[in-house]
Description:
Blueprint: H1 4-16, H2 21-36, H3 42-60, H4 75-89, E1 102-106, E2 113-116, E3 122-125, E4 130-134, E5 142-153, E6 162-165, E7 170-173, E8 177-182, E9 189-195, E10 197-201, E11 207-211, E12 214-220, E13 223-228, H5 231-234, E14 241-248, H6 249-260, E15 263-266, E16 275-281, H7 286-297, E17 300-304, E18 307-311
Parallel strand pairs: 5-6, 15-18
Antiparallel strand pairs: 1-4, 2-3, 3-5, 4-5, 5-8, 6-7, 7-10, 8-9, 9-12, 10-11, 12-13, 14-16, 17-18
Domain FecR protein: 109-198
Pfam families: FecR, FecR_C
Protein name: Iron dicitrate transport regulator FecR
Amino acid sequence: MLNEKYIQYLLKKQQEQPLTPEETAVVDAWYQSLDALPAEEVPAAAMLQLESWEHLEKEIRPRPLLRRLRWPLSAAAACILLLGAAALLRRPAPVTATAESWTVVDCPPHKRMKVTMPDGSSIWLNGGARLTYSSNFEENRQCRLTEGEAFFDVVPDAQHPFTVFTSRLSIKVLGTSFNVAAYSQLEKEKITVTGGKVQVLDSAACNVTLQANEEIVYSGAGNFIKQAANGQQTDSWRKGEFYLTNISLEELAIRLEQIYGYKVIFANKGLKNCVNSLRFSEQEPVTKVLELLKLINKVQYRIKDKEITLQGSGC
């Protein structure tokens, strides 16, 4: 069963503003889960739905659509009434009159690009990153980083908070600059603040406020680490300089493909978990980075065409 507190939050939010596509999917999944529940579990679950729509109906019309059910009722009668009401109310017309639309921006591989938003905020995308944002952005400052890495320099606007969504997190700001790395190939997401303050939340137990030179490394299901960081170095990739601190070879492989266009193959999968800290420039040849790995981790490499094969005993 989905988390009822989170469902309540989404149903209340839906009364005031459009849900994101991810949130809409969660609500839809919850509606569908009611159909699969055993009869004895339906009343408690459906009551949450009915009470939420009762509240919404009171806001729209002076006379409520449904009166709160009084318990005790027979289980059979309660199930019939609740399921019938759920069928009638399953997808009521949204409060807002217009559907949300989104603009998609894809950064080509091995490139970087800057996007100036309608409100004047600037977003830099690293190679292969995908950003979508609300087409009504000046009123609804929401965007989603669905793949890759991006740096955000946000124009303050207290009346219109700025929110960035990844696949698992939401980052809420008023005016600040921060870096988000959210690669679909990696288990961890990382948010690093250069200036100002942001709030990072997930659907479970993560609710963290970050200030300048702080970051969160998030590994899912409320598991995260908050730590000090160098914000200026973290976003130096915009200038072609890379300060990679305590990153796995798996993440480094993604970076090498971004920067140089080489696909990295691990002959020994255990090498992926080796952790390193490296500094280099995109102007330097890829062999310099590989020679550093050879010294630090005793990694052997072979380059053929546009593939790099890494070999070694692991860490």
